[in-house]
Structures are given as structure tokens and as C-alpha cells.
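Need a sequence for this fold. Nothing fancy.
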């Protein structure tokens, strides 16, 4: 695991840290800011992949050095899946995907687009997207890295990983958010529910400034936080947040952001003092707005009146679990899907525009609706009840334990005829050799419920 997460490891549990991580998020944000600010998912994906390709060998070497002769199973999310696929093949160890987004092709809908294409095109769009997750440059880099470690087979493409290897996938999202479609019956997967730690289990404790601010008024504040997302500048985002709160006359807790760059950090001192009402706005904000660093969503969200966020998978899960109305102003990728789900479940007004088109007055009106109309609170409580009845973390552990005993995609792949990447319109289950095994993750965990 990255050393940044060392404090999350429970006492008494051993662990090793990845020793080299050049793919620093703050570095990427600063370098690619001009591209990422446009809010174009395709351009953002290309930019990230190009940067990741440059660092692939160093990251893969680090993961291999950490896991060689020690690990029995590699578990990776969508960001690290190409690295861990290559490392697991070189080391010949088992491999499983662990995702918090519904990252498998389906005909029902597409997760990563700001619009909904015609249903008949969804599967084709998925295939196109999986194809875009690699490039000739990335292919050559992975190939060279595998050859260096004595594995001369060509790299596994995202299409092959899904359709030929049928890599087992454990999904940590709630069925209340995404109900797995019938298309997924061919894939070795399980949807466990959200992976949520209780506030008591988290090492991070709230600061006195946060507890004092919450206790200062009988009216709970509104939370505004956009995670690692950014647009234009920290000053611009600070202005949006504070002016929306002032217009709605609501107290607020504003997250400074996790982009790890001063350029995009939100702070009270970043208000634009050249504006005619700057002094008045700053004085009001000094008394009614608290800017904070990192804090546990599981602890904070149930204590606020409404949650304004970007729609990231983790933040959305915590919002659904809180029983509090939420408003999503998406930036990119799966955030659009979580924004749609939030509105469909009735937990907040909307749909709101993506952040790049958001105006303070629009956000202010939406926040007032969220805190004043009881239907949003009622819907949020209903979703909370459904989500909390799931045993996501426990089921994920059960699935991982069972997989470690039953599935070895590399052993199975060696015994099968090698299929190429599937043609987009070919029935993948019939032509592309989808793995069928007696014990599937979905079968295993279904028996646990």
C-alpha cells in the first residue's frame, strides 16, 4: 500500500509500503491543469494516461519489489489495474479488481458520460472507452517492462482483461445506487455494498475548531467540498462557495480541497478583495464560514444540514450513508452518474449544472431547497436505511477469501485457446471465451446474504 495510508492499518495487522510513487497527484494537477480545467472527459483521460505511461515502469518496479515472494493476491482499483495486471502476470500470483464504480460494460447505461446516449449505443460506447484506456505508447512500455522481468507475452488490453480473462471484480458500491444489470451475469463479480468504516475506527479525529463551529448554533451548517477537483483557481471556487452561502444566508463548512496544490486550495483569505462588496462578504464569512482540512465524512456528514459535493464515489457513498440531503455539482467521469442517481433517489434538488457552469445564485437556491423542503430529508433517511442494511466490508472480505482459493486467471488463461480482443458487436460470452468457473464471486457472496 502507499505509505500515505499507513495510519489506516489497524493495530496488529502487518503491511508493507510501496517504496516509490512518482505519480504524485499534485504534480499531475499542476502539469495538466490547463487540460483538466476544460471538463472534457476524453481530453482528461488522454492527459492522465499519457502522464501515467511515463511513470509506469517506476511504479510497476515498486509494486513488484514490494510484493515479490510475499503476496498471494494483488488487489487493485481502476487507477492501478494496468500496473497490477502486469505485475501479477510476471509474479504469477492471483489478481482481483476492487472498484467503487460500476466499471463493467453494460447495455443499461454508461457511467462516465455527462449525457445519456441512446440505450442501443451503450455497450458500443463502453467498448470504445475500454479501447481508449490504452495506447500504442502504453502498450510498448508495458511490453518492455514485462520482457525485462522474463515475461515475453504481449500486454493484456482492457478488453481482454474484461472479456478474455474475466478478472474477478469486487464492487464496493450500494445496490441502492446502482443495481447490477443482467449483462453482468457473464462476468465474475460481486456487488457487496459500500465499504465504510465507522467513525470510531478511523484514526483521524475532528479538530476543536470543527466541534466548536458545530456547537455554535442550533442550526446545522451546510458542508461544501469538491475533493481533489478544481476549476480555474482556488480563489474562483472560494468565491462560488462563500457567495452561495451568503446569498442563502446559511452557515457553512468548506473543505479546502485535496488537490495538494496551493493553486487550487480554497481558503477565506482567497476571497477576491477587488470586488465592490469584498469587505462586507469577508466579514460575514469570518463569522459564518469555516474552512477545514481533511475530516472524516462518516463523522461530519450526519451533523450538517446538507452536503454539496462533486459526486466522487467515496463522497457519494458517505453522503448516502448519512441520511442528509445532498447536492452534486459534477466535474468529470462517474460523477455525472452519481449526480443522476442522487436526483433519481430524491435526496436533493437538481439536476445541477456541472461545476464548470455553476453560478453562486443557482447553488444558493438549491441549498435553500435542500434544507427547507422536508421531502429531501425524508428521501435521504430512506436511502440511509437501505444502505446501512448492507454489509459491504464484510462481504468484500468473504469474496476475497473465496477468490484466493478458487481463481487463478493466469493458470486458466494458459489452458485456454488465446482469443484476441472482441469485436464490439460480437456476443462476447459466445466468441471471446469468457471464463466460467464452478465458484464465482457472485455465487459465493449471494450465499452469505
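Here you go.
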Amino acid at each position: 500500500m502507499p505509505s500515505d495510508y499507513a495510519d489506516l492499518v489497524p493495530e496488529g495487522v502487518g503491511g508493507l509500503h510501496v517504496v516509490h510513487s512518482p505519480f504524485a497527484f499534485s504534480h499531475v494537477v499542476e502539469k495538466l491543469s490547463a487540460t483538466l480545467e476544460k471538463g472534457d472527459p476524453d481530453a482528461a483521460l488522454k492527459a492522465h494516461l499519457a502522464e501515467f505511461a511515463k511513470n509506469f515502469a517506476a511504479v510497476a518496479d515498486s509494486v513488484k519489489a514490494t510484493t515479490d515472494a510475499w503476496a498471494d493476491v494483488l488487489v487493485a482499483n481502476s487507477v492501478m489495474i494496468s500496473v497490477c495486471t502486469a505485475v501479477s502476470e510476471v509474479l504469477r500470483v492471483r489478481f482481483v479488481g476492487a472498484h467503487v464504480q460500476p466499471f463493467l460494460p453494460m447495455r443499461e447505461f454508461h457511467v462516465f458520460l455527462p449525457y445519456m446516449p441512446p440505450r442501443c449505443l451503450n455497450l458500443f460506447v463502453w467498448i470504445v472507452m475500454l479501447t481508449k484506456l490504452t495506447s500504442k505508447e502504453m502498450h510498448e512500455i508495458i511490453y518492455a517492462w514485462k520482457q525485462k522481468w522474463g515475461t515475453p507475452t504481449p500486454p493484456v488490453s482492457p478488453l481482454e482483461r474484461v472479456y478474455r480473462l474475466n478478472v474477478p471484480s469486487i464492487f464496493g458500491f450500494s445496490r441502492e445506487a446502482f443495481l447490477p444489470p443482467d449483462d453482468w451475469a457473464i462476468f465474475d463479480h460481486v456487488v457487496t455494498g459500500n465499504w465504510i468504516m465507522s467513525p470510531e475506527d478511523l484514526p483521524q479525529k475532528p479538530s476543536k475548531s470543527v466541534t466548536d463551529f458545530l456547537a455554535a448554533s442550533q442550526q446545522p451548517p451546510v458542508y461544501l467540498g469538491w475533493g481533489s477537483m478544481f476549476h480555474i483557481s482556488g480563489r474562483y471556487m472560494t468565491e462560488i462557495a462563500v457567495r452561495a452561502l451568503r446569498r442563502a444566508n446559511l452557515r457553512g463548512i468548506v473543505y479546502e480541497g485535496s488537490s495538494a496544490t496551493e493553486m487550487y486550495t480554497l481558503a477565506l483569505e482567497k476571497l477576491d478583495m477587488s470586488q465592490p462588496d469584498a469587505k462586507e462578504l469577508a466579514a460575514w464569512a469570518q463569522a459564518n464560514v469555516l474552512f477545514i482540512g481533511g475530516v472524516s465524512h462518516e463523522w461530519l456528514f450526519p451533523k450538517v444540514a446538507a452536503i454539496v459535493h462533486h459526486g466522487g464515489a467515496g463522497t457519494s457513498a458517505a453522503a448516502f450513508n448519512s441520511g442528509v440531503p445532498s447536492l452534486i455539482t459534477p466535474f468529470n467521469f462517474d460523477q455525472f452518474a452519481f449526480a443522476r442517481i442522487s436526483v433519481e433517489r430524491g435526496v436533493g434538488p437538481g439536476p445541477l449544472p456541472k461545476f464548470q457552469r455553476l453560478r453562486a445564485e443557482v447553488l444558493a437556491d438549491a441549498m435553500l431547497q435542500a434544507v427547507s423542503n422536508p421531502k429531501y430529508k425524508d428521501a435521504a433517511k430512506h436511502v440511509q436505511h437501505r444502505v446501512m442494511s448492507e454489509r459491504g466490508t464484510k462481504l468484500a472480505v468473504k469474496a476475497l477469501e473465496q477468490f484466493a482459493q478458487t481463481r487463478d486467471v493466469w493458470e486458466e488463461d494458459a489452458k485456454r485457446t488465446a482469443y484476441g480482443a472482441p469485436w464490439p458487436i460480437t456476443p462476447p460470452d459466445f466468441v471471446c471465451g469468457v471464463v466460467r468457473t464452478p465458484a464465482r464471486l457472485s455465487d459465493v457472496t449471494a450465499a452469505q446474504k
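For context: The CA atoms of residues 240 and 360 lie 5 Å apart.
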